[in-house]
Write a structure and sequence with these properties.
Structural class: alpha+beta
Helix content: 25-40%
Number of helices: 9
Strand content: 25-35%
Distance between the termini: 26 Å
Radius of gyration: 21 Å
Order of helices and strands: EEEEEEHEHHHEEEHHHHEEHEE
Shape: elongated
């Protein structure tokens, strides 16, 4: 560890500000939105809040990290260096050329785990943005670097872009690495028509993303790829200017039906809501169902579908109506 440097009343060691807690608030996200596999994302107003402090001292002064968790994941996630947020925080500091300080981390989680609402991406983005907050020079970890590092950790940029930037995002990866060796990732934020509202049906079971992705075929027919390309383009129009087109714009042939065996109740609800006129899709890798609509249309279609199932249906669902999150990850 380098020698401490006093600057503007704070202590900086190896590029890290010590003893000054930073807080990150990061939204949940729903990816794919039907046809936009691994590219489209929507930030939702359900947030994780993380507070991180770099502590003075070395290895003889205590554990390298102290982690506490409340809410989602409490009692289930690790409380040491293997915690996903801690790993990405370390990654962010290393990318900026900073040191490895002792850390105190507190997570207050509201994003459901294992449900297809981007909990891992939210944690990854929170860790990277927290690393930025600890840096004496925050420009060393800008949004482009955060997105690239988050994409490397996730394998795709859709959830991470929505959690980082907020709103409706279109994200992509370049085929070749940038100067740092990471595959370059890009994203643009597209405004959403204010008439669009969201309903999210959350089941009482989890599904590992790795299991859902393992069910996808290695190749797809050209006609199905062309179909999804057209629907993805139409979905941008539907979300930004023509919500009356949301039902056809959310049709998909690439990934949802292919994973139905892993979440049969989810797929049954998607079909029932769509039959009731709601633009229902599997949220991310599932098993949540996301429904888009104009005004009260989304919730009405959900109520109709769940009412048809009856209270004795095979799956219990909690229905949320979160606003679309106008802001992405915020650092305080």
């Amino acid at each position: 560890m380098g020698a401490p440097v006093q600057a503007s009343g704070v202590t900086v060691v190896d590029g890290v500000v010590l003893g000054l807690p930073v807080t990150v608030r990061v939204p949940a996200s729903s990816a794919n939105l039907g046809p936009g596999f691994d590219s489209l994302g929507l930030a939702l107003d359900v947030h994780d809040v993380v507070t991180v402090e770099a502590l003075p001292g070395g290895p003889d002064d205590g554990p390298s990290v102290e982690v506490t968790v409340e809410g989602e994941g409490a009692g289930a996630v690790p409380l040491d260096e293997s915690h996903l947020l801690v790993r990405l925080l370390r990654t962010g500091l290393a990318h900026a050329g900073a040191g490895r300080p002792r850390l105190r981390v507190h997570c207050r989680n509201s994003v459901p785990h294992g449900r297809g609402l981007g909990s891992s991406a939210a944690t990854i983005v929170a860790g990277l943005v927290a690393a930025r907050g600890l840096l004496a020079d925050r420009s060393l970890l800008d949004d482009a670097a955060v997105l690239a590092l988050a994409t490397a950790a996730e394998g795709h940029p859709d959830n991470a872009a929505a959690s980082l930037f907020g709103g409706f995002t279109v994200a992509w990866m370049d085929p070749s690495p940038g100067r740092t060796g990471l595959r370059r990732a890009g994203a643009v934020r597209v405004p959403v028509d204010p008439r669009v509202r969201v309903a999210v049906c959350v089941p009482d079971v989890e599904l590992a993303t790795s299991r859902a992705r393992a069910m996808l075929p290695a190749s797809v027919p050209h006609g199905d790829a062309a179909f999804n390309a057209g629907r993805s383009a139409l979905l941008v129009e539907a979300l930004t200017r023509r919500p009356d087109l949301l039902l056809p714009a959310t049709e998909d042939r690439l990934h949802q039906r292919q994973r139905a065996d892993a979440m049969p109740h989810t797929w049954a609800l998607v079909e029932a809501v769509r039959a009731a006129g709601g633009a229902a899709v599997v949220s991310g890798a599932g098993p949540c169902v996301l429904v888009l609509g104009e005004g009260d249309a989304a919730r009405s279609a959900v109520d109709a579908a769940l009412g048809a199932q009856g209270t004795g249906g095979p799956q219990a669902w909690t229905v949320l109506e979160p606003p679309i999150a106008a802001e992405g990850a915020e650092l305080a």
